[in-house]
Amino acid sequence: MTETQNKTGTVLVLGATGGIGGAVARGLHLRRWTVRALNRDAAKASRKAPAVEWIQGDAMNATDVRAAAEGASVIIHAVNPPGYRDWGKLVLPMLDNTIAAAKAVGARIVLPGTIYNFGPDAFPVLDEDAPQNPRTEKGSIRKEMEARLKAASEAGVRVIILRAGDFFGPGAANNWFSQGLVKPGKPLTAISYPGKKGIAHQWAYLPDVAETMIRLIERAESLPPFAAHHMRGFFDDDGTKMIAAIRRAVGNPDLKVKSFPWWFVSLASPFVPLFKELKEMRYLWREPLEMRNDRLIATLGDEPQTATDDAVTATLASLGCLPRDLGRQPSNVAPVRREA
């Protein structure tokens, strides 16, 4: 295992009120980094996370991003528009502002990546250098984001990308687990599963993703200028493992499993942007997918991984989906350990 570099400094987190941005900000603060974040309501944000140095500003404003980046050695680009509306108008300009700021101050850019920029031609085993032929508008934007970061790396900006499967975990919003599989706010009476038995699916527990990003940052000086890594996360090899973990978490081995209402998504997709995007992403539930982490293991020595049952229980507790006698409030960053 490569020895951890204990060098710290100042990091600018864009999207620090979000799931992955917030988790990385907390983790770096615990590592004694000076954590700075840009927010359009800095006063409100500071009341929720006083350990962060909040700066008033907007990621859509290049001047604001450049000013906030002064003195930073790392910029975490974890900012995303809510939902799927206006993605094409907002996502790329925000990334351009980050790239310009990184060039100006000599900072490294760290991006939490996704699988959306890959189409089924790259499946079933997805490696870091697979061709990117996305099926969706969001995937095309993600592909362009990485292309711009690749070009920036060739112009002297160092880049780390960590791609992972579908997020779940405390603080993870707008994801398949909390918006598809379960209904937040009350104990579960059923699971709605979008895939089919026998179709492998890739999941990633958000605290583990944040911890992995932090460890890559700690080893940044040993990485190439453009470093892309894949997490294995929680690999459900036959489409039944996540269902079984949820049943164990709620203490009901017979919890009903219903088919996800794809028919309704298709019917409403012309009128609801979210449903249009979900319909386009259906191939991720029809095609088996496995992300290998060989490159990550070669870099870090191992992959941070919380035991599956602990991760699912913490997620359901945070969503209010456990019976009162089982629910417990999880910590912001779950303990990381190797799963047996």
Automatic annotation (TrEMBL):
<dbReference type="GO" id="GO:0005737">
    <property type="term" value="C:cytoplasm"/>
</dbReference>
<dbReference type="Pfam" id="PF13460">
    <property type="entry name" value="NAD_binding_10"/>
</dbReference>
<dbReference type="GO" id="GO:0004029">
    <property type="term" value="F:aldehyde dehydrogenase (NAD+) activity"/>
</dbReference>
<dbReference type="InterPro" id="IPR051783">
    <property type="entry name" value="NAD(P)-dependent_oxidoreduct"/>
</dbReference>
<feature type="domain" description="NAD(P)-binding">
    <location>
        <begin position="15"/>
        <end position="129"/>
    </location>
</feature>
<protein>
    <submittedName>
        <fullName>NAD(P)H-binding protein</fullName>
    </submittedName>
</protein>
<dbReference type="InterPro" id="IPR016040">
    <property type="entry name" value="NAD(P)-bd_dom"/>
</dbReference>
<dbReference type="InterPro" id="IPR036291">
    <property type="entry name" value="NAD(P)-bd_dom_sf"/>
</dbReference>
